[in-house]
Amino acid sequence: TAAASTSSATLKALGLDSFNLGVYNGEWSGNGSIVETTNPATGEVLGAVQQASAQDLDQTLQKASKAAKMWRSVPAPKRGEVVRKMRNALNDKIEPLGRLVALEMGKILPEGIGEVQEYIDIADYAVGLSRMLNGQVIPSERPGHAMMEVWNPLGVVGVISAFNFPVAVYGWNSALSLVCGNSVVWKGSPTTSLTSVAVTKILAEVLESNGLPGALCSLACGGADIGNAIAHDKRVNLVSFTGSTKTGRDVATVVQKRFGKHILELGGNNAIIVHKDADIDLAVRSILFAAVGTAGQRCTTTRRLFLHEDIHDTFIERLIKAYGQIKVGNPLHPGVLCGPLHTEAAVQAFEQGISDVTAQGGKILHGGRALKDMPGNFVEPTITSIAHDAPVVHREIFAPILHTIKFSNLPEAIEWNNEVGQGLSSSLFTTSPENIFHWIGPAGSDCGIVNVNIPTNGAEIGGAFGGEKETGGGRESGSTSWQQYMRRQTCTINYSGQLPLAQGIKFE
Ligand code: UN1
User: Fold this and answer.
1) What is the pLDDT of residue 2?
2) How many other C-beta atoms lie within 10 A of the C-beta of residue 490?
3) pLDDT class for 4, splitting at 50, 70, 90?
4) Distance CA 366, CA 14 (A)
5) Are the CB atoms for 471 and 449 separated by under 8 Å?
6) How far apart are CA 330 and CA 266, in angstroms?
7) Distance from CA of residue 74 to its chain's centroid?
8) Residues in contact with 167: Cβ distance below 8 Å, sequence separation at least 6, in sequence order
9) According to the model, what pLDDT value does residue 326 have?
10) DSSP string spanning 87-113?
């Protein structure tokens, strides 16, 4: 069929086959179980990957540790040059790689390509950063002493990423880890294994053709067993985990027990507040992308919408009209804005969520059904009306369900924004400076991402990305996130020939 030939051409363009090895550490192997991945829009099997066994992982960690020892002594700007080559190699493959993401994850093609672009952007950022891993010089209280901070590499960084961003999230972690002087061992989601292999092939080619150990960008495809082994293994100095709050709590506990470092990017339950003085056009368009984009499967998806009572009714009318124009369908077809959910289990979670809404006194204003006549895991983008504190509103359902709630004043809406367990992203639509500064201040949003007049999703790479509370507290991507991939040393150097002690202590 035409669909099958698109997918095999895409695999071919990326050097993949219908059967692929899912372990890379300088050499390709795989002795674990075989996973087949399917196109969630059609049910078509795309290809198979043989995952890592426990022994494969052990060998990979050994090689990654060895590679890290060599890499840490390469000057950081030289490491940046390698990341620049990776960036260029990714750019050469942006179209087929974006297409593979659309085929395997189910997001629309522009978003698939956008995700590769996000990796390219963070790689650019990392290249610049490779000349700016600056420490500070601190005035010493003692004569003839100098104090400074020196940043050194950690060693091995384990990256466990989720199905919904099978390229970009690895990109954030990988590009920063590499310029910071670490090797990386990656376990992506089993349901997007082909994408993990495709990305690793691109990086492997750069490493190998530059005479560098491939284990710097190691891959160990697998499920919870491999993730668990990475969390437990002392050779992994930092574990960067993206996924559910439930699994994240377990990963963090295991890593903490051995005093490893961790970065957590867990669930979100993001809200948009539309005040009465908002630009309504802008708000409607933003909410469409925020709540329906990626079929509601971003950790930054808007799930709760607080509408000021003065504009509530007209806004709902506008929103329902806009939802009515959204085309649901194959994510590779032009004009489609909402692809399928990633798995059948997600469709069941959607249906459970809808029945909870009605059981908890809510109403379905638009949508509400799984589209069973279509070949893939499709659901209708849904708008509900429900109380702010209904239990279903406080749960992250990874599907395009938007709960709408009426509010009467901004402090009340902020309280409701903050009352959920999660604390990732939030956005206020207003034209008044007082509201804006209240929102970003100490009595405003409690989230890691606090926006004004833009959606909750679609963050740029230059800022630190992550959230508070059950979102896990981690920060990835821009700003000072790089510091988590290094260890900070405080160095005090005495050039006085005397021994004055700090705090004026006399010890003689
Ligand atoms: C995620 O959903 O795990 O801000 C990451 C965004 C994207 C990243 C989302 N830049 O929506």
Assistant:
1) 72
2) 11
3) confident
4) 40
5) no
6) 28
7) 28
8) 97, 101, 115, 116, 118, 119, 195, 199
9) 98
10) HHHHHHTHHHHHHHHHHHT---HHHHH
Q: Is the CB of 299 under 6 A from ligand 1?
A: yes
Q: Distance between CA 375 and CA 134 in Å, rounded? A: 53
- pTM to 2 decimals? 0.98
299 counts as catalytic = yes
- Provide the 10 A C-beta neighbour count for residue 508: 4
| Amino acid type, 96 | P
CA distance 86 to 203: 6
Mean pLDDT of 412-440: 98
- Among 417, 497, 477, smallest CA distance to 173 is for 477
State residue 3's pLDDT score.
74
Give, for 93, the enclosing helix (H) or strand (E): none
First vs last C-alpha separation in the chain: 88
Tens digits of residue pLDDT in 107-137: 999 999 999 999 999 999 999 999 999 999 9
Beta-sheet pairing, 261-265 with 238-242: parallel
For residues 341 and 355, give the distance between their C-alpha atoms in angstroms, rounded to a whole number.
18
Give yes or no: 338 in active site. Answer: no
What the block records as the tokens of 110 is: 């522009």
- For residues 469-483, b (16+ Cβ closer than 10 Å) or e, as one string? bbbbbbbbbbeebbe
Q: Which atom of ligand 1 is nearest to the CA of 461?
A: 10
CA distances, 244 to each of 22, 39, 455 (Å):
23, 23, 22
Expressed in angstroms and rounded, the spacing between residue 498 Cα and the centre of ligand 1 is 55
Name which residue sits closest to atom 3 of ligand 1, judged by CA: 299
Q: Which of 180, 217, 299, 338 is catalytic?
A: 299
Would you state the pLDDT for residue 216?
A: 99
User: Residue 16 and residue 9: Cα distance in Å, rounded?
Assistant: 10
Q: What's the 460 CA to ligand 1 centre distance in angstroms?
A: 9
Interface confidence, given as ipTM, is: 0.97
In this structure, the number of other CB atoms found within 10 A of the CB of residue 1 comes to 8
Rounded CA-CA distance 387/406 in Å is: 9
Residues composing the chain? 508
Q: For the chain, how long is the longest CA-to-CA vector?
A: 88
CB 341 within 8 Å of CB 382: no
What is the Cα–Cα distance from 51 to 257, expressed in whole angstroms? 27
Side by side, the strands of the sheet bearing 45-50 are 19-21, 45-50, 34-38
Q: Is residue 164 a contact partner of residue 298, using CB atoms and an 8 Å limit?
A: yes
Q: Mapped to the 3 state alphabet, what secondary structure does 396-415 carry?
A: CCCCCEEEEEEECCHHHHHH
Element (DSSP H or E) covering residue 469: strand 468-469
Q: In angstroms, rounded to a whole number, what is the distance separating the alpha carbons of residues 281 and 296? A: 21
- The pairing of beta strand 422-423 with beta strand 363-366: unpaired
Amino acid at the residue 501: L
- Residue whose CB lies within 8 A of the most ligand 1 atoms, among 300, 301, 422, 476, for a mutation test: 300
* Atom of ligand 1 minimally distant from the CA of 459: 4
* 211 CB-contact burial (10 Å; exposed 0-12 / middle 13-18 / buried 19+): exposed
